[in-house]
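Lab meeting, item 3. Inverse folding demo.
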């Protein structure tokens, strides 16, 4: 009866433990890269930086809401949509200029609110705010 040593095991299987270790490390690295890429894409999608909403998206949503609430005629719907699309670019440009100031105000407001809450309430308040993709919505409300 022959006893097999670690070197004999490698010879029998045809693969050395060092080769197996290298393969495992390469596979782990590849899995990490793929996981990182997927996580990055998900984050970019959530933040609307990978595929930002196309122009006219907000105008269409507002027009849909007005049509639902006001029962617009087809010609009114077209006119309202045209007005909203025409104004959307200008409003967007104005918002980009004041967004940092709005963010600062919202952050200060949230800090003041947190200061009057109990530790349990504060934790819940932070959790509620973190559920939104854009924390500023907490202060300014949903779109």
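The presenter then showed the designed sequence:
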């Amino acid at each position: 009866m022959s006893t097999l040593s670690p070197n004999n095991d490698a010879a029998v299987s045809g693969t050395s433990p060092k080769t197996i270790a290298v393969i495992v490390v390469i596979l782990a690295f590849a899995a990490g890269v793929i996981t990182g890429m997927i996580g990055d894409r998900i984050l970019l999608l959530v933040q609307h930086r990978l595929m930002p909403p196309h122009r006219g998206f907000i105008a269409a949503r507002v027009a849909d809401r007005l049509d639902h609430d006001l029962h617009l005629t087809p010609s009114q719907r077209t006119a309202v949509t045209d007005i909203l699309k025409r104004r959307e670019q200008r409003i967007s440009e104005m918002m980009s200029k004041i967004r940092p100031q709005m963010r600062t105000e919202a952050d200060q407001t949230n800090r003041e609110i947190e200061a009057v809450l109990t530790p349990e309430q504060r934790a819940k308040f932070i959790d509620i705010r973190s559920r939104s993709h854009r924390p500023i919505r907490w202060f300014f409300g949903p779109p």
